[in-house]
Every structure is written in C-alpha cells, then in structure tokens.
From TrEMBL:
<feature type="region of interest" description="Disordered">
    <location>
        <begin position="42"/>
        <end position="87"/>
    </location>
</feature>
<dbReference type="Pfam" id="PF03759">
    <property type="entry name" value="PRONE"/>
</dbReference>
<keyword id="KW-0344">Guanine-nucleotide releasing factor</keyword>
<dbReference type="InterPro" id="IPR038937">
    <property type="entry name" value="RopGEF"/>
</dbReference>
<protein>
    <recommendedName>
        <fullName>PRONE domain-containing protein</fullName>
    </recommendedName>
</protein>
<feature type="compositionally biased region" description="Basic and acidic residues">
    <location>
        <begin position="61"/>
        <end position="87"/>
    </location>
</feature>
<feature type="domain" description="PRONE">
    <location>
        <begin position="77"/>
        <end position="441"/>
    </location>
</feature>
<feature type="region of interest" description="Disordered">
    <location>
        <begin position="439"/>
        <end position="475"/>
    </location>
</feature>
<dbReference type="InterPro" id="IPR005512">
    <property type="entry name" value="PRONE_dom"/>
</dbReference>
<feature type="region of interest" description="Disordered">
    <location>
        <begin position="484"/>
        <end position="503"/>
    </location>
</feature>
<feature type="compositionally biased region" description="Polar residues">
    <location>
        <begin position="51"/>
        <end position="60"/>
    </location>
</feature>
Length: 546
C-alpha cells in the first residue's frame, strides 16, 4: 500500500515539473506556475488542485452569457409572449369575421358588414355592460377596450377612394394622376368618434377621488336605501346615496358640469349615427312589408293630426300616449313607415303603379316634412328608446362595411353617453330627494329624464336656453352662426305659421351645428381637411332639404 502511494507521488511530481518547464519556455508571458516542495504531502496537493478546479468552474459560470442574461431577458420574454398571445387572439377574431360568425365553415355566416357591426356591439356590451356606477373603468377593461376597438377600426384604413392629384415630373411639367385616400365619410367621422370615446372615458375618470356620494347594493335592505330607493323598472341598479344634508354646492356644480359635457357628447354621437342611417338604403324586404299609403300606416287619428292646415308638433305629441317605451317605439315605427311611403311616391314616375296616389306632390312633401319634424323631436326627447324597425332592417341588410362601422361605433358611444347621463341623474335625484323629502314618494319616469331637461324640479335646472352650455363652449370653440336671417320672424302671418317656421329654422340650425361639430372634432385631432373637400358641403344632415 505504501509502495503504491509513493509511486503515485512520483508520478505527480514528474508531471508538475514538466508543466513548470513548459511555462518557463513560453517566451516573456507572465503566467503563474505551481511549484511543489519535495516535502509536501499528497493531501495538500489534492486540496490545492480541488480549489483550482472550483475556481475555474466559478469563472466559467461568470463567462456563460446565458446565465448572466437570464434575469435581464425575463421582461423581454414576457412582452414577447404577450404580443404572441395578442396576435393569436387577433387572428382568431378576424377569422370569425371573415367567416361571417359561422365558425363551422358551412357558408351560413352573415355579411362582413353585419359581422363587424355585431363585433363592435358585443365588445361594447362586454366592456361597458356593467357600468352601473359613476366610477373610473379598471385599467384592464380600459386596455382591452382600446386594444380591441383599434383592431376593428383598422379596417377603415383600407376603405379608400380615388381622387385627383398633381404630380410633378422630372422635366418640371405637372400631370394629373389618381391617388387613393380614405373615404370621405370615414375620414371625417372616425377621428370625431375617437375623440368622443376619449371624452366619455375621461369623464368617468373624473369621478376617481369623489367622496360625497356612494352606492348601496341592490340586495341591501330598504332601511339602508332610505328614501332614494329606486321606484322605476331598473331594479338591478345600485341605489345612489348622499350625505344627510345633501351634496355640497361644489359637488352639485361639478355633477351638473359633467352632465352638460356628456349631454353634448350624446348629441354629437346621435347626429353622426342619424346621418349614417339616413345614408343607408332602405331594404326591399322592408318596403314590401309596408302598406300602400301613409294613412294606413299612421291610422286615421294620427293622419288627420299631421295633415291639418296649421300643424304644431309639440301640440301633436301632447295628444299622443307616450307613457311607455313600447308606445313611443310604435309611434316612431308608424311615422318612419309613412315617411318611406311618401318619399317613394314623390320619386315614383309610373302613375299606374300601385304606389300612385291622388294627393298632390306639394302636400305629400309637406306631410313628409312634418313627419320628419316629429321624428327628430322624439329622438331628442327620448334618446334611450330601442332602435326602430327601419333602423334594424337597414343594419341587417347593409353591405357597406364603412357605414356599418360608423353606425355601430356611434351607436355604442351614444349608448354609453346615455348610461353615464343616467348615472349622473341618479345622484342628482338622490340629492334632490334628500333635500326635499316630500318628493320621495313619487315614482320616477326615466323616459322623461332627458338630456334636454334637468332632473325633476332642481334648484339649478340645466335648461336648453340660449345661454346653456354646448360642446363648443366646453371645448373652447367659437362658432359663428351663418343663419342670422333665420332669427327674424316673418311679418304678416298667423301665429301658427310663425311658430312652425321658427321650429323648422331651429331644426335646420341644429343640423348645421352638428355638421360644424363633426368638422371641428376632425380639426382638433390634427387631421387636415383635404383639398377635394373644399367644394363639398360636408356630411349631409339626415333632415337637410335640397
């Protein structure tokens, strides 16, 4: 055993001396060498070699790029994984749209226009469907809304039209060529709708740090809800509560200011939506379902009220039963059907057609104008009612993808604005009841709480008077009226004619204001109006007469 140990020591000495000789002959390089004393033991040599091996292993780990960068690459890898997940989600979403929502591939899907319209509607329902309180949206919901609505709106970037443009050649001559630009209606309205979208989300964010009102769950006992308990049909909404002495003056003014701002956003969204719907063609299926004349559509009583010599739309609506949503929608459907019938008869050239009538063209045009006036008042007074049969039919059979996106986007913004308006009304109602306990026993009618009116008998009602706030005032815009002559009342006419002319003038000015609003919203997002729009009158108003 001792003999074997001596042989192993001799072998190690010879190898180490050989290594030392190699280092001495290496030529001017300063390299550390190991010298072994004859008296060193085998155990000391083994310990020294193990230390050298461990040091070399540690140095090798420090020089390994994978181990050194593993921690730094973690955020990059997570971002890449998230991007890949978003890409897969977007592919799945557009695959469903291309198949017309028929994932079986059986060819039974809807049109691309209707699929996009449904996608925007469903996205808004999932994000804003439970916006039951005046509070900011969560960061997750806000990010999801912004990401997915951008996916759906990016389709409009590829809906283009050819326009004339000038190109300068190398020899200095100018030639006219055709270039593609985004279609005019999309170029005007998509930026405006994006701005309205951002304004509504910012309005909700403004309620982040409020502490003057709170909400009681719908499942809470009546003792907690107190006198502000909901007595309308929306029983599932939480009940707004305010302090025992009501809101402070600053909080009340803040809520009223936010209400005015949302009101103007609602008007702008309604104007864009009404304009897009008016540009859609009336489907043949809807026309085939109509009666042959306007009297059959309206009924004898309504027809006589519209065709009288002196017509007052406010008096007409006061005689109608508008106590429920169903009755308002039924009146709207009847009037829209009669308008379509009268318009077709005015454009009908074949006198032998079944659409022919003995009523003169002038009278039929007058009746159609009166019906459109009633429709406009109904839309402004009751913005929360469902869509009419004509609107649903247009959306269902529309094949224009650009119009489908504009209609659905403006409709969901209109719905969100109305929801925020209703939540503000809830808080103002709770404040009013707290300060006026005698009013607590009365039942609320949400159909009458419109943006044009304030909450029931408030101290500071937000009436739509000449000095009321508009979106132009809120944004700091200054519009000059081009219709100063329309303010002058005609002399020598009866009171009824003067009243009707004033109403028509007011509606025309409101349509012009909506057009200016859309153009101004485009300007504030730094989109330059192209030169080929200079000779156009902008987006046609749904009630404009040519």
């Amino acid at each position: 055993m001792a003999r074997a140990l001596e042989q192993e020591q001799e072998s190690l000495r010879s190898r180490l001396f050989h290594f030392k000789g190699m280092n001495e002959n290496s030529g001017g390089r300063h390299v550390k060498s190991l010298s072994v004393d004859d008296s060193c033991s085998f155990e000391q040599l083994r310990d020294q070699s193990e230390k050298q091996q461990s040091a070399s292993v540690s140095n090798g780990n420090e020089k390994d790029p994978k181990s050194r960068l593993s921690k730094d690459d973690a955020p990059v890898a997570q971002a890449k994984d998230k991007q890949n997940a978003d890409m897969e989600q977007m592919k799945e979403r557009f695959a469903k749209l291309l198949l017309g929502e028929d994932m079986s591939g059986g060819g039974k899907g809807v049109s691309s226009a209707l699929a996009l319209s449904n996608a925007i509607t469903n996205l808004a329902a999932s994000v804003f469907g439970e916006q039951w309180r005046l509070e900011p949206m969560s960061a997750e919901r806000k990010a999801r809304w912004r990401k997915e609505i951008d996916w759906l709106l990016c389709v409009t970037d590829y809906i283009v039209e050819f326009v004339a443009s000038q190109q300068k050649s190398k020899d200095g001559s100018n030639m006219e060529i055709m270039v593609t630009r985004q279609r005019i209606d999309l170029h005007m309205n998509i930026p405006a709708l994006r701005k309205l979208d951002a304004m509504l989300i910012d309005c909700l964010d403004n309620f982040k740090d409020q502490n003057e009102f709170y909400y009681v769950s719908r499942d809470a006992p009546d003792s907690e809800k107190g006198s502000t308990k909901r007595k309308d049909d929306k029983w599932w909404l939480p009940t707004a509560k305010v302090p025992s002495n009501g809101l402070s003056e600053a909080a009340r003014k803040f809520l009223q200011y936010q209400k005015d701002c949302v009101n103007q956003v609602l008007k702008a969204a309604m104007a864009i939506n009404a304009n897009v719907l008016s540009e859609m063609e009336v489907p043949e299926n809807y026309i085939e379902s109509l009666p042959k004349n306007g009297r059959a559509s309206l009924g004898d009583s309504i027809y006589r009220s519209i065709t009288v010599e002196f017509f007052d739309p406010d008096q007409f609506l006061s005689t109608m039963d508008l106590s429920s949503e169903h009755k308002i929608l039924d009146l709207k459907n009847r009037i829209e059907a009669s308008i379509v019938i009268w318009k077709r008869k005015m454009n009908q050239k074949d006198g032998k057609s079944a659409w022919g009538s003995a009523v003169s063209l002038e009278k039929r045009e007058l009746f159609e104008e009166r019906a459109e006036t009633i429709l406009l008042i109904l839309k402004q007074r009751f913005p929360g009612i469902p869509q009419s049969s004509l609107d649903i039919s247009k959306i269902q059979y529309n094949r224009d993808i650009g119009q489908a996106i504009l209609e659905s986007y403006s409709r969901i913004l209109e719905s969100l604005a109305y929801t925020v308006m209703s939540r503000i009304e809830d808080v103002l109602y709770a404040d009013y009841v707290t300060r006026n306990p005698s009013y607590a026993g009365q039942k609320r009618n949400p159909l009458k709480e419109t943006p044009q009116e304030s909450t029931p008998p408030m101290d500071d009602p937000a009436t739509e008077g000449p000095n009321s706030m508009t979106l132009s005032d809120f944004m700091g815009w200054n519009f000059e009226s081009n219709d100063t002559e329309a303010k002058k009342e005609p002399a020598g006419n009866s009171d009824e004619i003067v009243k009707e002319d004033n109403l028509n003038s007011k509606l025309v000015k409101e349509d012009n204001s909506n057009l200016k609003l859309t153009e101004k919203l485009v300007n504030i997002v730094n989109i330059k109006k192209p030169s080929y729009l200079e000779n156009l009158g902008g987006v046609r108003s749904p009630t404009a007469r040519h």
